[in-house]
Amino acid sequence: MHIRVSSVALAAALLAPSAVHAQSGAAVSQDAESAEPVAERDAIVVTAARTQLPASALPLTVDVIGKEALDRQVQISGSTVDAVSALLPSFSPTREKLSGSGESLRGRSPLYAINGIPQSTPIRDGSRDGYTIDPFFIDRVEVIYGSNALQGIGATGGVVNQVTAGAPTRDGLAYRTLLQGTLPGTLDGAAMGGKAAALAGLRAGAFDATLGAAFERRGVFQDGHGNPIGVDGTQGEIQDSDSWSVFGRLGYRIADDVSVELIANHFELEGNGHYVLVPGSRALGMPASSKRGTIQGDPPSNRADLLSASLTHGDLADGTLQAQAFFSRTRDVFGGLVTSTFQDPTIDPTGKLFDQSANMSRKLGGKISYERALPGFEDLVLTAGFDALFDRTEQFLVQTGRTWVPQTDFRSLAPFAQANLKLFDGVLRLAGGARYEDVVLKVGDFETLAFYGATNAANVATYRPVAVAGGKPSFNDLLWNGGVIVEPVRGVRAYASYAEGYTIADVGRILRGITQANVDIDTFLALEPVVSNNRELGVEVNRGPIEASASYFWSSSKLGSVLIRGLDGVFSVSRQPIEIEGFEASVDWRTPLPGLSLSAAYSTLEGLTDNNDADTLINNDLDGSNISPDRVNLSADFTRGPFSARLQSRFYLARTFNDAATNTDFEGYELFDAYLAYRTGIGEFALSAQNLTDEFYITYDSDTVLPNDNSRFFAGRGRTVTLSWRADW
Fold first, then answer.
1. Does the pLDDT of residue 284 top 90, yes or no?
2. Between the chain's N and C termini, which has fewer beta carbons within 10 Å?
3. Do residues 673 and 695 touch, judged by C-beta distance below 8 A?
4. How far is the C-alpha of 499 from the C-alpha of 503, rounded, in Å?
5. Which of 415, 417, 409, 466 is nearest to 440 (CA)?
6. For residue 160, what are the β-bridge partners?
7. 151-160: per-residue pLDDT in tens?
8. In this model, does residue 444 exceed pLDDT 80?
9. pLDDT band for position 125 (50/70/90)?
10. How many Cβ atoms are within 10 Å of 169's Cβ, its own excluded?
11. pLDDT band per the 50, 70, 90 thresholds, residue 577
12. What percent of the chain has pLDDT over 90?
């Protein structure tokens, strides 16, 4: 077990989380003025773990980012993904773009979820899953580290579960509002942005309801030199964009221990298309920039809808029953370009055809679980459940209506069981279980784009589509997990664990990239799943003013998934074995000075693969799109009465790769952020600064991936100041 909690105030929040496990009376905060009892920390239940047991009873590494810490970091960084990345050293630095391609947790892709509902689409990963709900509607973020199958497909790096806000805890109305403005250090009007959001909650006896709306406008971003940052016209941007979201929740308590709820969310983010890319020069150290212009085609955008219904029975035959059904859909539009991949001589024989793609995904699913202590042996808690997921995904070309990735139907049926045994009054715990995955992937007969059948890539006239026979490849696998927790004295815990997770390598990229004739999907090797494991040793100390933890982990997959860029600039999937190992450590100290807390965290990661067909040695470094840099986080928090402040720093350490090219090496950089807030009778006023020193830097992705591409040579954001007013009543 290892749990690190960042400013969680579950009971103190104006609107309680929608999950029924919110701990009444628990107020856990790293920057609280007084040390909270260990018992209250141990009572925290992580809903993403699919159990009523507290996190202290699980052999997992878990972070919970509470409402206070999340709101503060979102104001600094701008999004939930950026907030998670800034606070957790094991999470890679973001690309600072709409696409999260290459962003990872412990070197693998995390599963993003909202109330346990998957947002990720591994079978055609558009990497937009971090932008499906406005952070204003999120009460806390639960992060489970390492490969696991707790939530099904996609959690090879872990789970990032966003728990939404719920209704007031007492009868009556409650409101939450936000107004904020953002400006760069240059005070350029084109770079300014703003946000307005409101959330209203009602509780009336057994009935409760919550309704909210949010709108945000973002200006063009500027680097540390005051220049506009280059727009990623292909993958999509968050700069120069508008987003809006509506959120609703209805709940009804049928009996004291029985409740139902309905949750709906709609989110849209669309680029304004006011800027076009100006390529940079890597040779001169000049990053890409932007200038006013008119884009071709439709602006990149992201749209997500979610609808879920759930039932909770807290005392069914002395156990807890939970059931959930959900529907979600996404539509991701990418920017366009003239590329050889999109050329078709039957449409435009000149080789100058412009097009752009869009992903469409629809998910239907359900989850049911039942947990109770074994009668007559209450120290043994058993959990059993069943998950079903039906995912339909396709990718098409917007301007010409052609199919790039055929409609792909994914079906997963998964029973699971877990057991947790407490021995010697909690000094020792044993936990373990298994999940059986029965998966079918259905693909109809289809034709690739003409480019993939070219006999001469330099001659568009030779482009012909490749006919592919569809099929229904399937697999089933038993995924195990187990662990042991030892707590010899109160507040000192050690654990060891093993867990398996799985995903499917980006099937869409594989299908659309088929170049040979007479391929039968049923026997196509590249559709085999990625099964990864996570082995971990950890220790945690919570004694007096000190909270410290350390963990060492190693992970491997025999048939991993690595993104490789082709000559046309389009990424494909290479199936290679992967081995990853890392070490994490953190310490928090509530100093003798009332209200002052200091913290530090460190993460180091190494990843290897075998990209040489001539041998079987796993001795090639994973590149920057698959592995993150080592990192140190330092922060100081101070709270006194209505005043609070935070100063934080992130040190991204230099990294070299053992490939032939030296221009993929990462030089490293340091970022400092600050936050000041003062609560008054009319609300809280806060002032934050991202990149306080206005550091000029090249983003990690740009520095280590595509080292010869001047159009994807992006600088990071310079100093950005945000002033906000937040009120609860």
1. yes
2. C
3. no
4. 14
5. 409
6. 112, 143
7. 888 888 999 9
8. yes
9. confident
10. 16
11. confident
12. 73
Residue 31 scores a pLDDT above 60:
no
CA distance 118 to 304: 12
CB-based burial label for 716 (10 Å; 0-12, 13-18, 19+): buried
d(CA 381, CA 390): 30
Local structure of 396: helix, strand or coil = strand
Are residues 717 and 96 in contact, defined by beta-carbon separation less than 8 angstroms?
yes
* Residue 126, pLDDT score: 85
Confidence band of 424 (pLDDT split at 50, 70, 90): very high
Q: Using the predicted structure, report yes or no on whether residue 581 has a pLDDT greater than 60.
A: yes
CB atoms within 10 A of CB 397: 19
- Residue 621 in contact with residue 657, Cβ under 8 Å? yes
Using CB atoms within 10 Å of the CB of residue 204, give its burial: 0 to 12 exposed, 13 to 18 middle, 19+ buried.
exposed
Instruction: With CA atoms as reference, report the closest residue to 633 among 170, 8, 30.
Output: 30
Position 559 scores a pLDDT of 73
Which residues, 6 or more positions from 463, have their beta carbon under 8 angstroms from its beta carbon? Answer: 343, 344, 345, 450, 451, 453, 454
Interatomic CA distance for residues 277 and 181, integer angstroms: 26
Is residue 572 predicted with pLDDT exceeding 60?
A: no
Helices 67-77 and 80-87 sit at what angle, rounded to 10 degrees?
A: 100
Residue 507 phi/psi, 5° resolution? -60, -40
Residue from 293, 300, 509, 328 nearest 398 by CA: 300
User: CA separation (Å) from 291 to 119, 182, 228, 461, 708?
Assistant: 34, 21, 8, 35, 22
Residues 151/142, Cβ–Cβ less than 8 Å: no
Q: Which residues of 320-358 are buried (b: 16+ CB within 10 A; e: fewer)?
A: bbbbbbbebebbbbbbbbeebbbbbbeebeeeebebbbb
Mean pLDDT along residues 331-354 = 95
Cα–Cα separations (whole angstroms), residue 586 to 3, 146, 634: 11, 17, 10
CB atoms within 10 A of CB 120: 26
Q: Which two structure tokens, joined as six digits, stand for 445?
A: 């007969």
**Where do we find the tokens 């662990």?**
483
Average pLDDT estimate for 442-467:
94
Residue 500 near residue 480, CB atoms below 8 Å: yes
pTM beyond 0.70, yes or no: yes
Tokens representing residue 170 in the block: 């007492």
Confidence of residue 613 (pLDDT cuts 50, 70, 90): low
Checking 487-492 for CB contacts under 8 A at 24+ apart, the result is 487/426, 487/427, 487/428, 487/429, 488/427, 490/38, 491/38, 491/541, 491/542, 491/543, 492/539, 492/540, 492/541, 492/542, 492/543
Nearest to 386 by CA among 142, 121, 152: 152
Instruction: Specify the DSSP element, H or E, that contains 86.
Output: helix 80-87
Question: What distance in Å separates the CA atoms of residue 695 and residue 226, rounded to the nearest whole number?
Answer: 11
Instruction: End-to-end CA distance of the chain: give it in Å, rounded.
Output: 38
CB 301 within 8 A of CB 269: yes
Q: DSSP of 226-252, one letter per residue? A: SPBPPP-TTT--STTEEEEEEEEEEEE
Q: How buried is residue 626: exposed, middle or buried, by Cβ count under 10 Å (0-12/13-18/19+)?
A: buried
Rg of the Cα trace of the chain?
25
Cα distance between residue 209 and residue 171, in whole Å: 11
Among 226-230, 296-300, 589-593, 660-664, the least confident range: 660-664
Q: Please give the full DSSP string across 277-332, using - where no structure is assigned.
A: EE--BTTTTB--EEEE---SSSPPEEEEEEEEEEEEEEEETTEEEEEEEEEEEEEE
Q: pLDDT tens, 372-405?
A: 999 999 999 999 999 999 999 999 999 999 999 9
What token pair was written down for 171?
């009868």
